[in-house]
Amino acid sequence: MAGELLQYSGLITKIKAMEGRLLTREDYEHILEFQTVNETIAFLREQQIYGKIYGGHDEIQHRGQVEALIYNSIREDYESICRFCNPVQRKALRLYEKQVQYENAVPQLDTSYFTEVWKKISIFRQKKMKEILREVFGTQIDWLNIMWMYRAKRFFGQNEAEIYAILIPAHYKLKKSEIQHMAEAGKIEDFLKIVGNTAYFKGKEALVQLQDEVSYHQVMQRMYRRLCRKYPVSLAPVFSYLYQKEQEIQRLTSALEGIRYQVPEQDIRTLVLGE
Question: pTM of the entire structure?
Answer without folding.
Answer: 0.92
